[in-house]
Every structure is written in structure tokens, then in C-alpha cells.
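Subject: design request, 522 residues
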């Protein structure tokens, strides 16, 4: 059984190409991309495919078992109309302009048109490109499993994200120094076929502004608007501002989702900010276990914690500021950008309030609601409290029983004996105020719980869960990979057969590499 995919090449046909055909590392000027072929793998094997993504692309499950499919997703051969390329982009990394970065280990195969949608297919880890700088263009199984599982899980959570079609083992060995401490080891190489309407990032625009190449900048922005923001008018100064405003709105929506589900991206550099407002580039990301604004999973960011959970909204704002700078030459007036950036801050406050109310099951407004939310954030920080479990169990609180609140959420506390004295008093007072507000709601306890359960997931990809799947896969046991993939398709459902995953992080995972400590090495 073979399959037919109609690939088109809108990006490469409309935008300037790097004239150099050879694949060596270099600065690429006045071009949006370079032509490059994936590297041959030595013994490729498909470990998993996403049935949902197959269906989106119109590929049957039978066809996904074909040699042709394996060849496509391992990069061993390209489809007839595929003209693979790597994109040129730059970016601000950890607050500083880093110059040219680009697709150093991502190769775009082309765009599939299916059911009225356009999907770019991209192989991550398929070999070096002109943008690989000093690295090898490859990816290891560990990080590929994390990207594969998490991007599909995010989709099912309703969080905007790039998707994943397949996870392939290459059969090649890849050298990595996981903790950057001079202990490199060989790991299994892997490739994820990522899928997204486009993989354009803020950095794709920044690079041309940084090089004063306004012409290419304009060409790229006009292309982006035409194909990815068709609701906007023909190019003009007003349209460019509208474009920026739309990107700001989508980015706000995105970061609100992250705060809602407790996702920490880990490396929110401007080259990791999708122009479509999607979660992109799953590296040292993590899920909050204890609710902690100061937490970041990324050990590379341990010192300043720039990309910690609580800072994500202001970092997204900072990144938008960089995008505004990049788009400025097309508008030549700062005022419009400033207005949008100022509005972002106000809109964030409103959106946060709204989101927290939904998590709490409060649907009407009361003068004490803001105070209740503030105090909750304070009390949650007093002792280690599991975010996912806390909010999920909160749906079980009965409005007539204020004194029961603490008992209902008990399972969320990592050290239950800490909930005494002042901490206990604060919690009890909080539950008093909370139940008073619940009593003002018209919904019954049951109706409220049903609504809350659609906002507060029961199952997320806790870091240790991904690590267990990685450890098993390393021993060629892919059962857990499949189990987690299946579990995370219905994150808001009870799924009693998977109740064991509705649990706090076990103690062994507290300080383990891959569970609480992740580096950028991937
Ligand atoms: P990241 O921190 O993963 O967002 O990557 C930052 C930049 O480094 C991007 O330009 C990547 O393409 C590039 N990069 C990361 N890992 C590799 C690798 N193994 N080989 C080549 N380029 C890489
Ligand atoms: Mg990146």
C-alpha cells in the first residue's frame, strides 16, 4: 500500500533562495532559505505515528506501514515534488541578539494540502544544514520522544502547538554531553516529523531587520500575511500593524494556555516564538508539579531563571517588543506598536483573571474575586502543592461545606504534615472565602465540576512520565510510549484505567536528570 501526498512549495516558490547549492555552514544573506537534502540514515525504524495527524494529512494507517512512508519520515528519500530546504532566521537568546541561527537540524519537505488546510512537513534531526553552526544537525531519541509526546499532548489539551506525525529511530549513534560537564556519551539518534501550517518564527523577520534588508523583510511579511493571515487586507502600514496586533493576540492566548495547564517552555528565545502563536521547539520544557512561579526545568537557565513559569507572560511581551522592532522599518512609526504592546499588558491582566476564574469554577464577578485569586497564589506557594492535582480536585468541593475544602484537595500536598499552624489557617480562611463565592454561583456543584474539568486537566505529561518512557524505549520497549500517547489524548477525561498517572511526582524523580533537571542538549 503506497500513499499519494500532493506537496506544494509555496514558500520556496515565492521567496528568495540562497543561490549556493552546497551544504556547508555559512552566513546566508538576502535569502529566506537554503536548499538542502536530509542525510541518509543507517537503519531507520518507525517507532510511533500519530493516527490523528495521519488522518489530517489523509494518509491511511496502512500506508503509514509502507516502505515509502518510512523513507519519507526518515529523510532517506524525498517525495517526487518535494524540494527540501532549511530556513534562515536569527533570534534573541537569553536577552541578547545572537545573529543568524536558522534551521540547524530541521529540514522542511514541503506543504501538504489536505482537507482545505496546508501543512508543512519538517524533519527534525535529519542532518546538517548551512545553519548548523558548530553542531551536527542530529537529534537523540530522548529529546525526540519528549517532543513527539508533548506536541500531540498539547494539541489534545487544546493548547496551540506544532504537531508531530512520526517518531523514527535512525540506527545512528549521536554524541551528547547531557549536562555539559565533560562527559559525552553516545545515544540513539532519532527524527521527529513535525507538522505545522508554517514554522516561521519571530527570528525569521528579525534577521532581515538586523541586516537592514528591508526588501526581503517586506517580501517575507507580505508572504506571511497572504498565506497565513488571509483575513488581513492587502499590504499597507495599517495592515502591518494589524498583523503585529494579531500576532500579539495569539501570543497572549498561547501564554495564557501555558499558565492554565502549568507548562514551562524553558527556552523562550525569539527564535522559539512561532509567528502563528503556536508552542514550538520542545526542548528542556517541563510541567509544574509544585505550583511555583520561580520554577524552570532548564538547568542552562538555573542562575537567572529568565524563563521561569511566572515570567512567561512578561517574556512573551519582551519577545513581541523585539518583533515590533523588526517590523518597524515597514511602518516607520513607533506609536502604533507601542499602543499594541501597552494593550498587551492590560489584556494580560484581564485574561489571567478570566482564566483563573475558570480554573476556580467562578463564572460571575464579585468584588472579592481578585483578592481570592491573589491569596490563592500566595497560599499555593506556602508548601509544595501539586498544580494539576490541586485544581482537578477543587472541582469536588461542595459549596455547602467550607470546612471540607482542605480535606478534598489533601492529595495535592507533597508534605501533608506541613499543612498546620499558620499555613492551615490561611488555607481554611481561603476555603471559607471560596465557598462563599461558590454559593453566589447559580450552577450546581455537579454542573460547576463538569465545566471545571474542561479547564483543569487530569493528566499532563509530567517530566518523570516522559523519562520513564525514554528509559523503556532505550531498552527497545515502546509500550509506555504508546500508553502515554494514548492517555494524553483525553487529558480532561477521568480514564480510571490510568488513575496511576494522576499522582504526584515520586520522590526518586525529584532531583533526577530528565525529570527535574533538563539541559538544552538534545
Ligand atoms: P534551540 O535552542 O533548540 O531552539 O536551538 C537554537 C539554534 O541551534 C537553532 O538554530 C537550532 O537549529 C540550532 N541547533 C540546536 N541543536 C542543533 C544541532 N544538534 N545541530 C545543529 N543545529 C542545532
Ligand atoms: Mg529553536
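Subject: RE: design request

Done. Sequence follows.
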Amino acid at each position: 500500500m503506497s500513499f499519494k501526498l500532493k506537496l506544494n512549495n509555496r514558500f520556496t516558490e515565492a521567496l528568495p533562495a540562497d543561490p549556493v547549492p552546497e551544504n556547508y555552514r555559512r552566513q546566508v544573506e538576502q535569502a529566506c532559505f537554503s536548499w538542502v537534502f536530509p542525510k541518509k540514515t543507517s537503519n531507520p525504524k518507525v517507532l510511533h505515528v500519530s493516527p490523528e495527524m495521519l488522518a489530517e494529512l489523509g494518509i491511511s494507517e496502512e500506508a503509514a506501514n509502507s516502505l515509502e512512508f518510512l523513507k519519507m519520515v526518515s529523510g532517506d528519500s524525498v517525495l517526487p515534488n518535494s524540494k527540501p530546504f532549511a530556513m534562515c532566521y536569527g533570534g534573541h537568546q537569553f536577552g541578547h541578539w545572537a545573529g543568524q541561527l536558522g534551521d540547524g537540524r530541521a529540514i522542511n519537505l514541503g506543504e501538504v494540502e489536505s482537507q482545505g488546510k496546508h501543512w508543512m512537513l519538517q524533519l527534525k534531526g535529519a542532518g546538517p544544514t548551512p545553519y548548523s553552526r558548530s553542531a551536527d544537525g542530529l537529534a537523540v531519541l530522548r529529546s525526540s520522544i519528549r517532543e513527539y509526546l508533548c506536541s500531540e499532548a498539547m494539541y489534545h489539551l487544546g493548547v496551540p502547538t506544532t504537531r508531530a506525525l512520526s517518531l523514527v529511530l535512525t540506527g545512528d549513534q549521536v554524541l551528547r554531553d547531557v549536562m555539559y560537564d565533560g562527559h559525552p556519551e553516545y545515544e540513539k539518534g532519532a527524527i521527529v516529523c513535525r507538522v505545522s501550517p508554517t514554522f516561521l518564527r519571530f527570528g525569521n523577520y528579525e534577521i532581515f531587520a538586523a541586516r537592514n534588508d528591508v526588501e526581503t523583510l517586506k517580501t517575507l511579511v507580505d508572504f506571511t500575511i497572504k498565506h497565513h493571515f488571509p483575513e488581513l487586507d492587502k499590504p499597507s502600514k495599517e495592515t502591518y500593524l494589524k498583523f503585529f496586533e494579531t500576532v500579539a493576540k495569539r501570543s497572549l492566548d498561547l501564554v495564557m494556555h501555558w499558565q492554565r495547564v502549568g507548562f514551562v517552555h524553558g527556552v523562550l528565545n525569539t527564535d522559539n516564538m512561532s509567528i502563528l502563536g503556536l508552542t514550538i521547539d520542545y526542548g528542556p520544557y517541563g510541567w509544574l508539579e509544585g505550583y511555583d512561579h520561580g520554577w524552570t526545568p532548564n538547568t542552562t537557565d538555573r542562575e537567572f531563571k529568565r524563563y521561569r513559569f511566572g515570567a512567561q507572560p512578561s517574556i512573551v511581551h519582551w519577545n513581541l517588543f523585539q518583533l515590533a522592532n523588526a517590523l518597524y522599518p515597514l511602518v516607520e512609526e513607533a506609536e502604533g506598536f507601542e499602543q499594541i504592546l501597552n494593550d498587551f499588558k492590560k489584556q494580560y491582566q484581564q485574561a489571567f483573571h478570566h482564566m483563573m476564574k475558570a480554573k476556580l469554577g467562578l463564572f460571575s464577578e464579585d468584588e472579592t474575586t481578585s483578592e481570592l485569586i491573589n491569596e490563592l497564589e500566595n497560599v499555593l506557594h506556602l508548601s509544595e502543592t501539586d498544580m494539576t492535582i490541586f485544581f482537578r480536585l477543587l472541582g469536588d468541593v461542595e459549596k455547602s461545606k467550607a470546612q471540607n475544602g482542605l480535606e478534598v484537595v489533601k492529595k495535592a500536598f507533597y508534605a501533608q504534615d506541613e499543612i498546620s499552624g499558620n499555613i492551615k489557617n490561611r488555607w481554611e480562611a481561603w476555603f471559607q472565602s471560596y465557598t462563599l463565592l461558590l454559593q453566589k454561583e447559580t450552577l450546581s456543584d455537579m454542573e460547576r465540576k463538569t465545566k471545571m474539568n474542561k479547564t483543569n486537566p487530569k493528566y499532563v505529561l509530567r517530566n518523570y512520565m516522559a523519562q520513564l518512557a525514554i528509559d523503556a524505549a532505550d531498552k527497545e520497549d515502546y509500550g509506555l510510549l504508546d500508553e502515554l500517547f494514548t492517555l494524553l489524548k483525553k487529558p480532561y477525561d477521568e480514564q480510571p484505567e490510568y488513575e496511576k498517572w494522576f499522582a504526584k511526582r515520586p520522590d526518586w524523580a525529584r532531583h533526577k536528570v530528565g525529570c527535574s533537571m533538563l539541559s538544552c542538549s538534545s
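The first strand starts at residue 7 and ends at 8.
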